């Protein structure tokens, strides 16, 4: 057996560089590409000497990128793989202690969204000779614990490398998880800092090129037959399209399936952009932030085909949306855990393979024309309603524009190839209802974990994955203040973003929820928070200090003109506009289960509690 003597860190980096993947373009062409698109690194004493030296030696075949915040670099890596349909991945390395723990939140984002991410935090000394080392967490009852144990609940696979040869089976297991459509998610390998630098005689086969072909599990015959029987009996079938549709590159299959069988479709946050907005069966967003069209059809459905979705509460209206008599659910998902949720008939399969075999088995079957006609009518009515919220008003009734009006202005300046990206707060609700995506992947929302601070870093990751497309990052002032450092990174590595910063002077979304549940405005808007002096943040000046071209506009017309200049710019461009924190799109949407206090001296809370108790009776008792 031929051997190569390397440090553990050098061996890991060489093995990573040898991993390749089969990538399929939208037109069906395939090519072999590096599986790891690069490594994000913020070096410290726990990784600079070992892994840092190894990455320097491989910088021509495995590029290393420097970020400004560990959580942000992991968000960028997550957005990168999401934009590339999980076919290519990035790794992130930090030092031990605070650097490592900064990545835990991002690991949870990847875990919830079923996205592959390789985390390589430095760890304590395996030898324990210098313990306690700088930034080491000491557990008085367990000598094996380190800060990196915090990654365990948010990792699909976790390992700590305490001997150099352990990297061989650990990396093999890591690659299985990162490439498996069922287990897919974050992997954490804690790299003990002394072990990173230790040498071992590695078998040369560990560094052989490995080409990973995306697996497409096909459905079981019995499950397929049961699903077909349910659909054939359905009078009012409905499809819920989740992110798994895009991960499987099944958007064409979904379009053909819905059109062939006359079944209306509602899109989750992760599934939005799977279908063209003008597809006759696309009813738009579903659930709490859904359109009136999708929710009306979903409420009457007797069979719901859930394709590649986790069926979380925002999708199901906290399980009060589906009210059809005798309703049944078919769970088409690669993950059995998701496929069988809420007493569903599971159809465990890849979305593309599952839809293909359903189509073949259903043959010429088509739902009643009345159901399809109803779908067309409610869709037409919804888009007339939606336009009243997004159209540029002749004379705005509000002093400041609403989020929806800003969305409309950005939409009118967009092109079909553009990507709009957002994460948390009120904007995801407005975008889910109102944004009209031009192409698959043109709507990028992190709403599985609804993580504030994802936006700018996520936009950077998307731009790295798809540099040929314009990326519009829509972000509120609250999220901007949480995590904005990667503006500087985008400028440094020449990955231009267009940032639309909406300043409503606080957490407007939660302020509205607070008042909707009977509470007084408190601690959300800046004016309602304890203060001696009201903050006056100059977001344009701040973004300019980080290297962006910036301007602040006073109205929607100015925003439109600024976006034209932003598109022409070669550098990250930030446009700031003040917005009204109290206005949101009243049409569409659905009830959401947010518990209201049972006892309160506030009459508003008492009234909200009565409404809440009444709403609970509509929840699906079969949960």
Automatic annotation (TrEMBL):
Signal peptide: none annotated. Residues 55-136 form the Thiamine pyrophosphate enzyme N-terminal TPP-binding domain. It holds the Pfam family TPP_enzyme_N. Its EC number is 3.7.1.22. One of its GO terms (molecular function) is 3D-(3,5/4)-trihydroxycyclohexane-1,2-dione hydrolase activity. Residues 224-358 form the Thiamine pyrophosphate enzyme central domain. Keywords: Hydrolase, Thiamine pyrophosphate. CDD domains: TPP_IolD (cd02003), TPP_PYR_POX_like (cd07035). PROSITE patterns: TPP_ENZYMES (PS00187). One of its GO terms (biological process) is isoleucine biosynthetic process. Residues 425-575 form the Thiamine pyrophosphate enzyme TPP-binding domain. GO terms for cellular component: acetolactate synthase complex. InterPro entries: DHS-like_NAD/FAD-binding_dom (IPR029035), Myo_inos_IolD (IPR030817), THDP-binding (IPR029061), Thiamin_PyroP_enz_cen_dom (IPR012000), Thiamin_PyroP_enz_TPP-bd_dom (IPR012001), TPP-bd_CS (IPR000399), TPP_enz (IPR045229), TPP_enzyme_TPP-bd (IPR011766). Belongs to the TPP enzyme family. This is 3D-(3,5/4)-trihydroxycyclohexane-1,2-dione acylhydrolase (Decyclizing). It comes from Acidisoma silvae.
């Amino acid at each position: 057996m031929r051997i190569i003597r390397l440090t553990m860190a050098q061996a890991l980096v060489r093995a990573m560089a040898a991993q390749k993947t089969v990538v399929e373009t939208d037109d069906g062409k395939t090519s072999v590409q590096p599986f790891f698109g690069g490594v994000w690194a913020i070096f410290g004493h726990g990784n600079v000497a070992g892994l840092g030296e190894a990455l320097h030696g491989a910088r021509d075949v495995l590029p290393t990128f420097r970020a400004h915040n560990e959580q942000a670099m992991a968000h960028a890596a997550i957005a990168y793989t999401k934009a590339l349909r999980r076919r290519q991945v990035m790794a992130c390395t930090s030092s031990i202690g605070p650097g490592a723990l900064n990545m835990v939140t991002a690991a949870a984002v990847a875990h919830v969204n079923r996205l592959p991410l390789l985390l390589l935090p430095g760890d304590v000394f395996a030898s324990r000779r210098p313990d306690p080392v700088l930034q080491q967490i000491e557990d008085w009852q367990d000598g094996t614990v380190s800060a990196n144990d915090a990654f365990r609940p948010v990792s699909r696979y976790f390992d700590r490398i305490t001997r150099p040869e352990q990297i061989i089976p650990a990396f093999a297991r890591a690659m299985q998880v990162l490439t498996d459509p069922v287990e897919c998610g974050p992997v954490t390998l804690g790299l003990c800092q002394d072990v990173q630098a230790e040498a071992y005689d590695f078998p040369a086969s560990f560094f052989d090129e490995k080409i990973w072909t995306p697996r497409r599990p096909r459905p079981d015959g019995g499950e397929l037959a049961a699903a077909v029987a349910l659909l054939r009996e359905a009078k009012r079938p409905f499809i819920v399209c989740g992110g798994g549709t895009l991960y499987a590159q099944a958007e064409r299959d979904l379009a053909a399936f819905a059109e062939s069988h006359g079944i209306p479709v509602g899109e989750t946050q992760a599934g939005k952009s799977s279908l063209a907005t003008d597809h006759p069966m696309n009813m738009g967003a579903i659930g709490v932030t859904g359109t009136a069209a999708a929710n009306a059809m979903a409420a009457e459905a007797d069979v719901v085909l859930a394709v590649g979705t986790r069926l979380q509460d925002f999708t199901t209206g906290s399980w009060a949306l589906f009210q059809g008599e005798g309703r049944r659910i078919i769970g088409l998902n690669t993950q059995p855990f998701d496929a069988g949720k809420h007493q569903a008939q599971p159809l465990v399969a890849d979305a593309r393979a599952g839809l293909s075999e359903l189509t073949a088995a259903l043959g010429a079957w088509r739902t009643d024309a009345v159901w399809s006609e109803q779908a067309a009518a409610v869709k037409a009515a919804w888009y007339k309603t939606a336009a009243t919220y997004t159209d540029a008003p002749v004379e705005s009734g509000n002093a400041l524009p609403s989020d929806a009006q800003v969305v409309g202005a950005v939409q009118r300046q967009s092109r079909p190839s553009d990507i709009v990206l957002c994460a948390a707060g009120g904007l995801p609700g407005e975008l889910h209802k109102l944004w009209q995506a031009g192409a698959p992947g043109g709507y990028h929302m992190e709403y599985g974990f609804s993580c504030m601070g994802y936006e700018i870093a996520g936009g950077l990751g998307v731009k790295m994955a798809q540099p040929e497309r314009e990326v519009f990052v829509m972000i509120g002032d609250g999220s901007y203040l949480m995590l904005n450092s990667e503006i500087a990174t985008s400028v440094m590595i020449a990955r231009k973003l267009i940032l639309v910063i909406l300043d409503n002077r606080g957490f407007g979304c939660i302020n509205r929820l607070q008042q909707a549940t009977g509470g007084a405005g408190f601690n959300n808007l800046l004016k309602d928070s304890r203060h001696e002096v009201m903050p006056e943040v100059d977001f344009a000046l701040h973004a300019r200090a980080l290297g962006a071209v910036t301007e602040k506009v006073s109205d929607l017309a100015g925003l439109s003109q600024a976006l034209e200049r932003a598109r022409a710019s070669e550098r990250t461009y930030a446009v700031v506009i003040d917005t009204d924190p109290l206005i949101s799109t009243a049409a569409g949407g659905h009830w959401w289960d947010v518990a209201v206090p049972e006892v309160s001296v506030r009459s508003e809370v008492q009234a909200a509690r009565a409404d809440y108790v009444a709403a609970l009776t509509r929840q699906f008792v079969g949960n």
